[in-house]
Amino acid sequence: MKETIYDFDDLLEMLDSLLREPTQFWNNFYSDREKDVPFFTNSPDENLVSYFENGLFKHGKVLELGCGAGRNAIYFAEKGFCVNAVDLSQESLKWAKERAIEKNVNVNFINKNIFELDIEEATYDIVYDSGCFHHIAPHRRMSYINLVKKALKPNGYFAITCFFQGGELGGAEISDWEVYRLRSLKGGLGYTEEKLRSIFRDMKEIEIRKMVEVQQPNDIFGVPDFLTALFQKY
């Protein structure tokens, strides 16, 4: 492994190596499907369902970042969308593919780091993220924003569900600088409405709110420790 920094990409790679959970971590995480993890359910996010019910999402092409076991990607496919769903973990995608077969829907699952995607500009009507962003270290935040903006068509939607700061399920209450002092994301960074509004200020805000709690089992998923937001590209 080279350890000389020649350019900005080398710097990002070095910082990644200090902070990112390795692929094997996520493979192990998804290998035990019986453990008590709320989002292991096979139901879509309640906010995603609400976007359809409110007529905001209708048809088109969607890119899901960090799709996990596929519950939201499958829901999009059931609604008639062309779906590309990306995740770093082979184990999560194995599970997602099994679920898609059970639901008799077609989803293009992609096993890649989201920052290694080769995306044609203005390809997608929607970019969806449920649980990926809070695992993105601060030094990769601009790369993430640029990825979203490149992927979206003009007037396309970006929807995100992430840890609320100080929530019971996660949401570390630490500053960006503290991430590097600790060399840790503390299991996932927590966000507030104000911070999301500031980070995605170059996009039009449609809605930012706490996720509505939904008692399980149910055909939709909702926990109060998550923050949801919907933005639109100008």
From TrEMBL:
<dbReference type="GO" id="GO:0008168">
    <property type="term" value="F:methyltransferase activity"/>
</dbReference>
<keyword id="KW-0808">Transferase</keyword>
<dbReference type="InterPro" id="IPR029063">
    <property type="entry name" value="SAM-dependent_MTases_sf"/>
</dbReference>
<protein>
    <submittedName>
        <fullName>Class I SAM-dependent methyltransferase</fullName>
        <ecNumber>2.1.1.-</ecNumber>
    </submittedName>
</protein>
<keyword id="KW-0949">S-adenosyl-L-methionine</keyword>
<dbReference type="GO" id="GO:0032259">
    <property type="term" value="P:methylation"/>
</dbReference>
<keyword id="KW-0489">Methyltransferase</keyword>
<dbReference type="Pfam" id="PF13649">
    <property type="entry name" value="Methyltransf_25"/>
</dbReference>
<dbReference type="InterPro" id="IPR041698">
    <property type="entry name" value="Methyltransf_25"/>
</dbReference>
<feature type="domain" description="Methyltransferase">
    <location>
        <begin position="62"/>
        <end position="156"/>
    </location>
</feature>
